Amino acid sequence: MIGERVIVECQDFQKLLDALRQKGYVTVGPTVRDRAIIYDEIASVEDLPIGWTDEQDGGKYRLKRRADQALFGYVVGPHSWKKFLHPPVLSLWKARKNGKGFEITPNRDEPPRYAFIGVRSCELHAIFIQDRVFTNGKFVDPHYQARRRNVFIVAVNCVQAGGTCFCVSMKTGPKATAGFDLALTEILDGQRHYFVVEVGTTLGADILQRVPTKPAQPRDLQIAEERIQQAARQMGRQLDTTNIKELLYRNLEHPRWDEVAARCLNCVNCTMVCPTCFCTTVEDVTDLTGSEAERVRRWDSCFTMDFSYVHGGSVRASAKSRYRQWLTHKLASWIDQFGTSGCVGCGRCITWCPVGIDITEEVRAIRESELSRTQ
Ligand code: SF4
Ligand code: SF4
User: What are 328-350's pLDDT values in tens digits?
Assistant: First the structure.
């Protein structure tokens, strides 16, 4: 039943993965690779980052062993779910020479039916944001829509916050409140290791029928709530969003943009790791004989010169204008464009910026300079 909360013991977690795979889902979730927790196909509990956690700060990410065997005892890594819904490289169509003309074959590949395992609340909000961008406007992206349509979501409530998280400021976490089929809270309490599982949809309830469960007791629910509150108190960063749009629009010529431009390497990392950034470019590739061609869509970034190139040059030629564009789009013009902020407070852009540029610090510096002028 929707809204029901039950207990799944840790030793039965594999049965949840099995039930999803038997239903034809490709289960994707967190796993350790190249000293980071990334998202990829997983078939077994053993594929999860058991006993690992992450340490994060501006420009810093390290994996560390935990003292326990938690399955979801870390926060978010460099990947986000957009890599499955909005792939980094996507073939749009292929063309083949046919006598004097050519024949075009659009990409109509049926995408896999994904089950996302371990989606954090901020990431659910990022998916809602991309839903608006790709499917709620006048122009619908059929590739995103086809991938998104059949996704089964197993959310995980955060019981610890990362060093760069600020979801509380953005009202996007740490508890998943909507948009999931099942939501888990992982609890290690003495010798016991179990999950409080909330049912979000009838589909979720149906999958859970195939997994051993028992009713959640008031104490289980209380522990789960306390752990989530603990994560909310631990946020590594804060962002004051009061009138943020007006603040940024008023300060387009603020000297802080020059300071940040002096540090920014224009490496594009912040846009690649951001779960809401969606910009792309298209490339046409032909084979050496000239008989076949392909049009490919790739992630692009507002930090590249090419991205804003129009006849005669780039519209945003300076690093200052590119950083300002990115930050003001995320936190101000996104609100005008899509009705929400473009930032969910996941902290990835802070962690993965090689020079530790911090979106929360930049806004704070601009806000504080205004306050000091009025005092
Ligand atoms: S702007 Fe940074 S903190 Fe906000 S959603 Fe993107 S990566 Fe996360
Ligand atoms: S802000 Fe940091 S991550 Fe983003 S382009 Fe500049 S140096 Fe790279």
Answer: 999 999 999 999 999 999 999 99
Global confidence as pTM: 0.96
Predicted local confidence at residue 197, as pLDDT: 98
| Ligand 2 pocket mutation, candidates 265, 316, 358, 363, criterion most atoms within 8 A of CB | 265
Looking at the CA of residue 303, tell me the nearest atom of ligand 2: 5
How far apart are the two ends of the chain, measured CA to CA in Å? 56
Instruction: Count CA atoms closer than 13 A to 60's CA, side-chain side.
Output: 8
* 327 pocket-lining for ligand 1 (C-beta < 6 Å): no
Task: Look up tokens 């601009």; give the residue.
Answer: 366
CB 276 within 8 A of CB 343: yes
Distance 97 CA to ligand 2 centre (A): 43
Looking from the CA of 122 toward its CB, the CA atoms found within 13 Å total 29
pLDDT at 116: 98
Atom of ligand 2 nearest to the CA of 269: 3
Q: Which of 234, 227, 165 is nearest to 194 (CA)?
A: 227
The string of pLDDT tens digits covering residues 221-239 is 999 999 999 999 999 999 9
Which stretches does DSSP call E strand in 34-128? Answer: 36-41, 52-57, 60-65, 89-98, 101-106, 114-119
Residues of the chain with confidence (pLDDT) below 50: none
What is the rounded average pLDDT for all residues in the chain?
A: 96
What is the β-pairing status of strands 182-189 and 192-199?
antiparallel
Dihedral angle computed from the Cα positions of residues 144, 147, 149 and 152, in that order, rounded to the nearest 10 degrees:
-130
- Residues in contact with ligand 2 by the CB-under-6-Å rule are 264-270, 303, 353-355, 357
Nearest CA to ligand 2 atom 2: 353
**Residue 118 in tokens:** 């371990």
Question: With a 6 A CB cut-off, is 239 part of the ligand 1 pocket?
Answer: no
Percent of the chain with pLDDT over 70: 100
